[in-house]
């Protein structure tokens, strides 16, 4: 019920986006900046500043308008931007303004402003250090912040200390020096760190005093935290193997950002089950008492499951402090009036101990729904027959395998107001497989509900579960009444008939939903499939990929697709040459220790990968996914040459010395053959426990991430207008 399911596909934005059961509420993107005013050096140079985009769009682009003495704006990544400032020779300090402009959906924009001040050219730099909290006795990674006013373009920062227990200074993040403090076995101790800024043959210094707590100040635990934030979802008996009640409980020191953990935060997840229902159904809370870590796959009374309980802590520069699951532990819950206290003592899979507490007045999101015994995956059920006379239709390309394409069609009888639908009424969503045709017209014929990827299949209703959110897929209907109460029916049987008509196309549907409800629909009017891609290969003939001297990197995601094999994302990247290769495969082994198992990998014909298959290549929203040739790397690592693998085989051999040999011969989308071979050591990384795919590839066209896969279906959920008083979203996992 809680497994992560994602289909490898892409889609353009529709006028129907997210629904009330989707916690991403369809709000437009928003630009946030931690600082509203920044200083540029008087002598000019590069200025960096932080920003973030909430509700980012797949086609979003960040640009800026600036005063004339500022130029060369660059969005370095999704959290850091920079620009260049000219020297200030005006004879006085000056001010300017940057207007950040985020463009999405073609011509939609949102903006944010930052004030910029600049002193006169020639001003000498100054160095200021931030405060450092006492370092725990157990040691660890510590951050020392610094600020330089009027920095010089080639200035360098460094730090030194005579204390042997402070090592590994790191200056990679602007404005932050990190170092490692060893564990303290004695009394409280202090050390001075001298920070030096060197420029134009000159130096300035500042000193920070670091204090480390005495041994014995935390003798029992490796990590200890007190929290006052709780984010929880109550699922009723939906997740309980034997009908136990479930409370999906996060406690943390930072809130979630649009459903994702934030850098610099510490988060603990406890997946709690008990046999007694909540004392107050209007405010469901877990029963007081002692819970123990349960057995895998079980949801016994007064346990928290090892399957989903986990902990993650990172620094602001994305250094992982820990990313762990639990091997043993207890969790005590008590109440005093409205105040809830959680105290947990746990041991993680790295052998470290944790003592964490939470105190506060929580409110769990109630996603328990009703009871639908015919389909526990959809507890709310539809509960009624529907006859939909649709007046509006929209269709979007989702993906293809070269000969067939998957299409998403949405039919509704509700009127539109702006980009939202006005209840009461229904949206019937169809996901159909049809012969590939870039004309934009749907293929006429009869589509029958089945789980194959054959032409003229209609996919049965289902959902994917990502980070606690439900996104519906396949054929399903959502009915919203005048009070904005919503019910969903998943289509399990039936067919869709598409015929030409004088108005465009006649679409007739007859379905049986998962709870036995009968759903019929008819639409007669124009419909054009948007977003169908053409060939994107830059090759003009057959090509042999030159991977001499290239390096290999692979990330292991476990049984990511739930198909009984291990998912690997592999990148072969040049060091001195022009060419590279990216691919995504599923191999037969299910453990990281086995590495990438030898075998011949053929193209996937389904929307999930099975053992012995690779994902074929395709482009969506300016990104390249699946298996592709990459070339034309520039100094920033971006590529300008590429070709997808549409068909052909790839042979992977795991050699006895731990190296790999990869040979391949593929056909691109223009009929060109591209082939090659690479041998060498592969750097392999186990990220199967990561909450999300967070790796950053060294080129713009990176492989499809978990967030992007979920984002595809987020964009395909019908958007219903908000009621006059906005109702809380039902957050489901």
Largest sheet: number of strands, sense, barrel closure:
12 strands, mixed
What overall form do the CA principal axes indicate? globular
Number of strands: 56
The oligomeric status of these chains comes to: single chain
What structural class results from the helix and strand content?
mainly beta
What is the arithmetic mean of pLDDT? 82
Q: Distance between termini?
A: 8 Å
DSSP helix fraction: under 10%
Number of continuous helical runs? 1
Strand content: over 45%
Low-confidence stretches: 1-26, 370-379, 691-710, 722-733
Number of individual domains: 5
- Taking all Cα atoms into account, the compactness measure Rg is 28 Å
Explained architecture:
With about 725 residues, the chain is mainly beta. The chain has 5 domains: about 80 residues, Immunoglobulin-like; about 90 residues, Immunoglobulin-like (Sandwich); about 130 residues, no CATH class; about 150 residues, no CATH class; about 160 residues, no CATH class. About 0% of the residues lie in helices and about 50% in strands. It contains 1 helix and 56 strands. The radius of gyration is 28 Å and the shape is globular. The N terminus and C terminus are likely disordered.
Structure, briefly:
With 733 residues, this protein is mainly β. The chain contains one helix and 56 strands. It is 1% helix and 49% strand.
């Amino acid at each position: 019920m809680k497994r992560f399911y994602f289909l490898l596909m892409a889609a353009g934005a529709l006028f129907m986006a997210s629904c009330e059961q989707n916690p991403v509420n369809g709000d437009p993107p928003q630009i946030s900046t931690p600082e509203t005013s920044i200083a540029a050096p008087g002598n000019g140079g590069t200025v960096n500043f932080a920003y973030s985009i909430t509700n980012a769009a797949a086609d979003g682009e960040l640009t800026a308008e600036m005063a004339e003495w500022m130029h060369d704006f660059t969005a370095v990544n999704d959290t850091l931007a920079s620009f260049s400032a000219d020297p200030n020779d005006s004879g006085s300090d000056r001010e300017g303004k940057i207007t950040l402009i985020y463009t999405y959906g073609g011509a939609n924009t949102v903006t944010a402003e930052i004030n910029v001040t600049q002193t006169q050219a020639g001003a000498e730099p100054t160095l200021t250090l931030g405060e450092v909290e006492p370092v725990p006795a157990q040691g660890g990674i510590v951050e020392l912040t610094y600020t330089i006013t009027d920095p010089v373009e080639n200035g360098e920062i460094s730090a030194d200390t005579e204390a042997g227990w402070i090592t590994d200074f790191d200056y990679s993040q602007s404005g932050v020096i990190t170092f490692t403090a060893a564990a303290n076995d004695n009394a409280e101790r202090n050390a001075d760190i001298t920070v030096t800024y060197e420029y134009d043959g000159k130096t300035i210094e500042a000193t920070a005093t670091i204090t480390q707590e005495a041994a014995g100040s935390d003798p029992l635990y490796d990590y200890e935290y007190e929290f006052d934030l709780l984010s929880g979802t109550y699922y009723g008996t939906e997740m309980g193997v034997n009908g136990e009640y479930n409370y999906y409980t996060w406690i943390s020191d930072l809130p979630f950002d649009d459903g994702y953990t934030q850098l610099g935060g510490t988060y603990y997840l406890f997946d709690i089950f008990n046999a007694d229902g909540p004392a107050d159904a209007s405010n469901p809370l877990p029963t007081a008492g002692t819970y123990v870590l349960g057995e895998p796959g079980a949801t016994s009374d007064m346990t928290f499951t090892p399957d989903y309980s986990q902990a993650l802590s990172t620094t602001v520069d994305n250094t992982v402090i820990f990313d762990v699951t639990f091997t043993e532990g207890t969790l005590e819950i008590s109440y005093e009036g409205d105040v809830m206290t959680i105290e947990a003592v746990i041991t993680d899979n790295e052998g470290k101990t944790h003592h964490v507490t939470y105190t506060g007045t929580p409110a769990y999101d109630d996603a328990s729904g009703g009871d639908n015994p015919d389909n526990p995956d959809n507890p709310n059920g539809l509960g009624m027959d529907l006859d939909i006379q649709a007046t509006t239709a929209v269709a979007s390309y989702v993906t293809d395998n070269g000969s067939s394409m998957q299409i998403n069609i949405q039919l509704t009888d509700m009127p539109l107001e702006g980009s939202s639908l006005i209840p009461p009424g229904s949206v019937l969503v169809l996901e159909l497989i049809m012969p590939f045709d870039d004309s934009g017209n749907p293929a006429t014929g009869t589509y029958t509900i089945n789980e194959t990827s054959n032409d003229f299949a209609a996919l049965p209703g289902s959902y994917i579960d990502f980070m606690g959110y439900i996104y519906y897929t396949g054929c399903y209907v959502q009915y919203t009444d005048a009070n904005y109460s919503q019910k969903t029916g998943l289509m399990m049987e039936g067919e869709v008939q598409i015929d030409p008509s004088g108005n465009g196309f006649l679409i007739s549907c007859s379905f049986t939903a998962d709870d036995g409800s009968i759903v019929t629909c008819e639409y007669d009017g124009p419909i054009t499939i948007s977003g169908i891609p053409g060939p994107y290969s830059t090759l003009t003939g057959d090509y042999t990929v030159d991977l001499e001297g290239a390096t290999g990197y692979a990330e292991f995601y476990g049984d990511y697709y739930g198909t009984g094999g291990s998912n690997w994302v592999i990148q072969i990247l040049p060091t001195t040459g022009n060419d590279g290769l990216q691919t995504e495969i599923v191999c037969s082994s299910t453990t990281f220790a086995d590495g990438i198992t030898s075998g011949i990998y053929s193209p996937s014909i389904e929307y999930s990968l099975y053992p012995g298959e690779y994902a074929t290549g395709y482009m969506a929203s300016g990104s390249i996914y699946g298996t592709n040739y990459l070339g034309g790397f520039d100094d920033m690592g971006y590529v300008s040459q590429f070709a997808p693998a549409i068909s052909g085989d790839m042979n992977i051999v795991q050699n006895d010395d731990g190296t790999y040999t990869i040979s391949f011969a593929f056909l691109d989308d223009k009929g060109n053959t591209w082939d090659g071979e690479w041998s060498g050591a592969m750097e392999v990384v186990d990220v199967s426990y990561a909450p999300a795919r967070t790796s950053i590839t060294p080129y713009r066209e990176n492989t499809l991430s978990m967030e992007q896969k979920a984002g595809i279906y987020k964009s395909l959920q019908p958007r219903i207008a908000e009621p006059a008083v906005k109702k809380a979203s039902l957050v489901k996992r």
